Amino acid sequence: MVKIAKLHIDGMHCSACSASIQSNLEKNSSILNTKINTISGKAKISYEESQISEQKIIELITSYGFPASKDNSKEREMAYIQGLKTRLLVAIPCFLVIFVLHMGGFHSFWSSAAELLLASVAQFYCAMPFYKGSMSFFETKVADMNVLIALGSSVAYLYSVYLFFSGAKGYYFEGSASVICFVLLGEYLKSKAKKSASEELEVLAKILPPKARLLKEDKKEWVAINTIKKGDKCLVVSGEKIPLDGKIIQGEAEVSSAHINGEELPSVLREGSEVIGGSVVINGEIIVESSKDSSDFFVYEMLDLLELSQTQKPPIGILADKIASVFVPCIVLLALVAFLFWLQESFAFALSIAASILVVSCPCALGLAVPLAIVCASMRAKRNEILIKSPDVYEKAKQIKFMVFDKTGTLTKGEIIVQKADIFGDKKEILSLSKAMQEDNPHPIGKAILEYTKEFTTHVVLQKKEYLITKGVKAVFNQEEYYLGSLAWIQEILGKKDIVKQEEGVVALCNKKELLAVFYLKDSLRKDAKEVIDCIKNLGIVPVILSGDNLASVEKIAQELGIKEYFAQTTPLQKSQKIGELKKLGGVCFVGDGINDALALEESSFGISFASATELAKEIGDVLLLKDDLKGIVEVFKISFATLKNIKENLFFAYVYNVVLIPIAAGVLYPFVGIVLQPSLAGAAMAFSSVSVVLNALRISRLKL
């Protein structure tokens, strides 16, 4: 029988780590399929239960140097993060003191001894996770970042120890400590991000209420929703969330599914209508029969799809695999060959050559090149109230060909407003009556009319008021009946048709004799929407609307904004599929704010959401605009373009020293001109490479938008 193990894996630094785990696991014929996400630390492993157990798989992964546990083991994850934090808090002061002693000209025996002591603490305590991880090389025969970090810091440290006990000067303790300090900081921040990524999907499950009111043999019984089976019948009344997917078998109600399908107005559902768990009953009472078991509900299907999408390897992972698998063995081999070649001179000379190669190849600048640019860019974005959560955004922004917008709550405010009103009679009296009829009405249209009439404070006392599902409000005032609601209902009462030209988004007020008022409704457009769309077009990006709302509403907004491509009445799955189709033509950025947008946000090249969005959209989106301003979208692209350029410059500064100095460090010039790169100069070159990268990255902080 095939089973799936959902595991959490600690200690992965890059895609090479996950690749080594995956390749070694799949050598076992009992393991059928492996999906590992380096960022979240999650793994889904299909295996043949009769041949291997989940515990054995956990032991195998752990033996490779990556502690594995069941995915529900939060304690181990927290312990790992706390361990990193503790080591980081030790590494930072160790590095700072060593740096001050080294750069401050303190070269006495005791200052050197202090450097040795502090560097030893950093090397044997703070760097322990990297040493443990590098042990996987002996199991997997794959060199990952753990090997690179352990080797780079160890060579600088061990050569410095050799110099200390031989009485020489020119130590590199600050080099070994800085590697450990910076990498630990990056690993800690990444692990915190992993924890956040593992928690983001938990938001989705909270869409459903924890319990449902089931009808069993004419009795009402509250049960946990995870116990619901196909065929169970559930009673849902006004103000409650529908806890299951199914079909209405009795009753009638206005149901809001705004977070599911993007529609800003509730729908009237009757017997035979299908409903989705998480929708809210605004008015009415219904009995719903479950069409599936709880494990198959729409919300949980979305959860599975999102988890699956998170296990896909990003394109940059392929490059990281190649660099990690080629760079480390080549440098080690070169250092070994150079050491053996120069033994003819002397052991000390050969060791100096080998140390110079390894020190000048130390990945400090290479390790800083990308993350430092990203940190500076993220800080610059934060100043403009933009939170860029995924570093991939900086790389992918240049590839974007389509900018896909959800409509409701994104291009529009997601709020129904009264655009204008035609009043036939005493304006103050009619609007005061309308206000009284809509007080305490939770319906979005009722709220819109209340907002429009809030300045009319004449107190009106109604003798009677009744809400009629699908129609509106019926009230008695001064012994006369008044009706405020849908245009079709008002026309039926008056016995007239075509009382207004526009029928879309209209409600009216009348008595039994005459029409008193007509309210024209609209979803308000964001004030900066048109300007932003024009800017996006200027960047060579095609704007597209992808909405769950009705065609007339979407078409109207598209025309106002000058958007030629738009799609209406799309389900969450259809949105995701459409994004997939567009991605075949180029990169796609999706901007949305609802639960219905979660799959589309994940499917897109990268997603942008708002601080005012639903919790899930905020977690899933790669970029979060903290200010309720669409202009932040354009700023994201400007920052990303500048950052990608800066990263390429940083990589040049990081690599140019290696390309030029590694041959010199290997002694290529020594037979001809007698020049050899001393380890101290190699350390200085390595430091200068890092300084170049730092200074260049800091330029992003001064970027003008």
TrEMBL record:
Q: Does the keyword Methyltransferase apply?
A: no
Coiled-coil spans in chain: none
Question: What PROSITE patterns does the record tag this protein with?
Answer: ATPASE_E1_E2 (PS00154), HMA_2 (PS50846)
Q: Where does this protein chiefly localize?
A: membrane
Q: How does it sit in the membrane?
A: Multi-pass membrane protein
Q: Which Gene3D superfamilies match?
A: 3.30.70.100, Calcium-transporting ATPase, cytoplasmic domain N, Calcium-transporting ATPase, cytoplasmic transduction domain A, HAD superfamily/HAD-like
Q: Where is the signal peptide?
A: none
Record domain HMA: where: 3-69
A single GO molecular-function term is:
P-type divalent copper transporter activity
Where do the TM regions start and end?
88-110, 145-165, 323-343, 349-377, 652-673, 679-698
Name one cellular component (GO) term.
endomembrane system
User: Which keywords describe this protein according to UniProt?
Assistant: ATP-binding, Cell membrane, Hydrolase, Membrane, Metal-binding, Nucleotide-binding, Phosphoprotein, Translocase, Transmembrane, Transmembrane helix
Q: Where in or outside the cell?
A: Cell membrane; Endomembrane system
Q: Which GO annotations describe the biological process of this protein? A: copper ion homeostasis
DNA damage in keyword set: no
Note the CDD domains from the entry. HMA
- Which InterPro entries does this one have? ATPase_P-typ_cyto_dom_N, ATPase_P-typ_P_site, ATPase_P-typ_TM_dom_sf, ATPase_P-typ_transduc_dom_A_sf, ATPase_P-type_domA, HAD-like_sf, HAD_sf, HMA_dom
**So what does this one do?**
Probably involved in copper export.
By sequence similarity, the record places it as follows:
Belongs to the cation transport ATPase (P-type) (TC 3.A.3) family. Type IB subfamily.
Q: Which protein, by its recorded name, is this?
A: Copper-transporting ATPase
The scientific name of the source species is Helicobacter apodemus
